[in-house]
Amino acid sequence: MKQSSTFRISVLVFGFAFLYIPILSLIVYSFNKSRLVTVWGGFSTQWYGRLLENRQILDAAWLSLKIAAINATGAVILGTLAGLALARFGKFRGRTLLSGMTTAPLVMPEVITGLSLLMLFVVMEGAFGWPAGRGFTTITIAHMTLTLAYVTVIVQSRLSSLDDSLEEAAMDLGARPAKIFFLITLPIIAPALVSGWLLSFTISLDDLVVTSFVSGPGSSTLPMVIFSKVRLGVSPDINALATIIVLLVTIGVILAGIFMARQEKRRLRDMQMAAAAK
Amino acid sequence: MSARAEAPRRHRHSAGVQLILDFLHRLPPYRWTQARLVRWGITGRTAVAAIPYFWLLLFFLVPFIIVLKIAFSDARIGIPPYQPLVQWMEGGVMQINVHLKNFYSMVEDSLYWKAYLNSIKVAGISTVLCLLIGYPMAYAVARAQSTWRHILLMMVILPFWTSFLLRVYAWIGILKNNGLINNFLMWTGLIDEPIVMLQTDFAIYVGIVYSYLPFMILPLYSNLEKMDLTLLEAAADLGARPFKTFMTITLPLSLPGIVAGSMLVFIPAVGEFVIPELLGPSDSLMIGKVLWQVFFTKRDWPAACAVAIALLLLLVIPIVLLQRAQAAEARGAHR
Amino acid sequence: MATNPRPQQQLAVWNDPQAVPYVHIDRVTKKFGDFVAVNNVSLKIYKKELFCLLGGSGCGKTTLLRMLAGFEEPTSGKLFIDGVDVTDLPPYERPVNMMFQSYALFPHMTVEQNVAFGLKQDGVAKDEIATRVDDMLKLVRLQQFAKRKPHQLSGGQRQRVALARSLVKRPKLLLLDEPLGALDKKLREHTQFELVNLQEQLGVTFVVVTHDQEEAMTLSSRIGVMNQGEIIQVGTPKDIYEYPNSRFVAEFIGNVNMFEGRLIEDEPDHVRIDSPEMGGTVYVDHGVSSAPDAVVSAAIRPEKINISTEKPAQTDNVTQGVVKEIAYMGDMSVYLVQLASNKIVRVTQPNTYRHADDSITWEQTVYLSWHASSPVVLSE
User: Fold this and answer.
1) Residues of the domain holding C309
2) Taking a C-beta distance cutoff of 8 angstroms, is the pair C257, C244 a contact?
3) How far is B253 from chain C (nearest CA, A)?
4) Chain B CB within 8 Å of residue C123 CB
C-alpha cells in the first residue's frame, strides 16, 4: 500500500510539472527585462506597459471579447434548446440527425469546420448577398456553431442526470410547458448554463483556425494577431499577455472550484443531517 | 440555516417570473400567435427543437454538402463570385477533367500521400504517449483522497481553459536553441552546444501531448473514478497480487475510457495545424497544415475541399470508435 | 450483572475448554481516525462452524469481517487462522475467501471465467481448473450458464456464482457479507437452507455478517451479537433468544416486553420482583445473584404470555389490561394490550384453531399471565 502511494504521488508531481512548467515559464519571462525572452536580464514590468500601448493587440482583444460574449450568449440559448429537445422530448423524427449534428463539431478537425463554413458564406453571399463580406458576423456564426455543441452536451447531460419527475410534478400541478421551463427546468440547469457560457466564451476567445477561415480584412481577432507575431518567434509582450490571461483564468477557475466545493460540502452536510434525523 | 435563509428569496424570484409569464400569456399577441401556431400544427416543442435544428442544418450540414460539391467540381454550383472557382468552372468538357483532378492529384501527388501517412503516424505516436502519461495520472487522481481529488482534477482542467495558442507558444521558449532546456543543460555542463529541438518532429510530439493531455486524462478519470472498488478487493481476495489485479480487472474495465481518451487525442491531432506550424520543421507534412497551405497560399479551393473530404474519410473509423466507447461508458456496461 | 442459569448444553465444541479454535480473534481494535469501529474484540470460532456476526448498521461487524479478509489492518490485536498469525498477511496470501454483499462479479468475464479466476491466480493446472470449475458449477446448478456474463443472470444466479467463485479455492474460511441481502424474501428463505446444506456438505467454516436476525437464527451454529464495535453476547440461536444477557440483545433479537421493577425476594431457587409498571409481581423460578433491592427488568417474550378473558388462578405473573390492537397475521395473532400503568404489552398467540381469536376483541379487558420459567431477569 505504501509503495503504491509513493508511486502515485511521484506520477502526480511529474505530470503536473509537465503541465505547469511551460505556463510558469511564460509568466516568469514576462517580467524579464531582456528582449531575448529566455535570457534573464533583471526584473521589469516594461512589457506590460508595451502591451497596453499596442493598439493592434488592444483592438484585436476588444473585438475578440465582443465576439466571445455574443457567441457565448447565442450558443447558450441555442444549446439549451437543443439539449432540452434531446433530453426531454423522447423519440421524435430527426432526433438522431440532431444528436449527430450537435456532437459532430466536437470531434471535427477545425480546418474542416472552418473551410466548410467559409464555402457556405461564399455561396450564400453569391446567392442572397448575405452575409456581405466576412468579419464580425461570420466569425460569430462560426463560433456559435462550434460552441453550441458544447453547451448542448452539458445541458443534455445535466438534464438526463436529473429525473423528469420534477417537471412532471409541475405539470401535474397545472403549470403550462413554458412556465415549467422558466420556473422548474431553468433553475435546475442554471449551473450547467453558466459553465456552458464560460466554456463557449473561452473557446471563442481562443479559436484561431476556424476564425482564420471565416474572418475578413480588418477583423483580426486576438489569436490571429498573436499567431502572426508568434510565427516570427518569441516576443516578450506576448508573455505579458499570456500572464494576464493565465491570471484571469486561474482566478475564475479557483472561484468556481471554491463555489462548487462549498455546494458539495453543503449537500454532504444536508445529507448527514437527513441521515441523523432518520 | 443558510438553506432556510435562501428559500424565501428564491421563492420571491420565482413569483416574479410567474407574474411576468402570466402577464405575457394574457396579451393578445401571445394568444394570437399561439392560435396561429396551433392551427399550423406547430407546438412549443416543435419550435424548441426546430431552432437549433435549422441552425445546425444551415451552418453545419449544408456546408459539408457544398464542400463535397466543390471537391467534385459539380457544375450545378452556379456562378461563384471568386476567381479560383470561376477559373475552375470554365469549359464544359473541362469540368469532368477537373472533377477527377482534385482526387486524382491526391493519389498521384506524393505530397498528399506523405502528409496523410505522416499525420496518422504523428497522431498515433502522440496518442500512445498521451496514454502512457495520462493513464497513470488519471489513476493517481481517481484514487486520491476525495478532498484532494477535486483540487487535482481542477489542476488538470485549468491549462485547458488558458489559451491553447499561448501554451503552444510557451514551448518555443523552452525548446529553442537558447531556450530553457538548452540553457539548463549547458549550465550543468552536460552539453557544450545546444541540442536542436525546436522545428523537429520531437517538438510536434511534445506540443501535441502537452496540449491534448487533459483530453486523455478526463475520460480515463471518470471511468476509473466510478469503477467498483470491491471488484479489486474480490480479485485480491481470490489471490491476485496488485499488479495482476490491475492487468486482469482495472485495465480491461477501463477500456472504454482508454478508447474515448485516445480518440479525443487522435482525432484533433490528425488535423492539427497550429502545433506543426509553430513547433515543427517548416517542411513538416501534416494534413491540416497542407490543407491550410493549399487554401491560403495556393488559393486552390477545390483541392482544399478535396483534402478536407479525404481527411474526413480518414476520421470516420476513429469517430465511430469514439462514439461506441462513449455509449459504452454511458451504459456502464461492459462487453 | 444478573446471570441466568441455563439448562445443560449438549456437548458442543465451543463448550469444550480443550478445543483449539480455528479462527482466533485476539483483542482486536480498529480505529478510523477518532472513530472506534471495532473495540477490543476477542472471539473464537471453531472448525466447520457457521458463525454469524449480527448487529445493526455501523456496529462494526463488516469491519471485523474485512479485517479477517485482510482489507483492513487492525489498529491493535492479532488474528489467527488455523493457528497461523495472519494479521499482517495481504488478502491475496490469506487462506480465506469472501463473498461480497454486491457479489463483486467481474463484469467483463463469463461465469466460468469468474469462477476460474482464483484458481488461475494460484497457478493450478488447466485441466484441474476445468474440472474444479465444472464441479463447482454443478454444485450450485449453474452449468448451463457457464458461458454467460453476470449481467445476463438473475439475482439468485449471481449470488450462486459469487458463492461458487469463493468456494472453488477450498478456503479454510469463507466470509460472507450479507450473503442474502440482495435477494427478495421468497428467494432468501430458499437460499438460506441451500447455504446451510452446502456448508455442511463441504465442511468449510463460514463467518456470516448480517443485520437480519431471522437469517442469523436460521443459518448459524452460533451468533455473535455486536453493538458499537463490541461483542455483546455469543451463543447458539437458542441461547441468544431465550437467555439474552442484556436489554440490548433481548430487544435486538425478536420482540420482548420489559417490566422494570425492584427485587423483593432473592433466593437461590427463585426471585420475586415488584413491578408497578406491570401492576403486580413477577415470580421467576430461578435465582439471580444481584444486590437486594436492585432495580432490574423482567423480559418476557410475547409468545410466552397467555391471554384470556377469565382471571387465571395465580397471584404472581398475572396482570390485567385492555386490548388496543389486534393484528391477524395468518399463522398467529398479535395483541397489543394496555395495562393500568399505560404500558403496552405485546402478546402473540398461535391460531391453532380457526376461530380461536373470536372470543377476544377490541377494548375488551383481558388477563395476561405467564409461567414462572418464562421471564429473564436483566440488570443492564
Assistant:
1) 258-378
2) no
3) 7
4) no
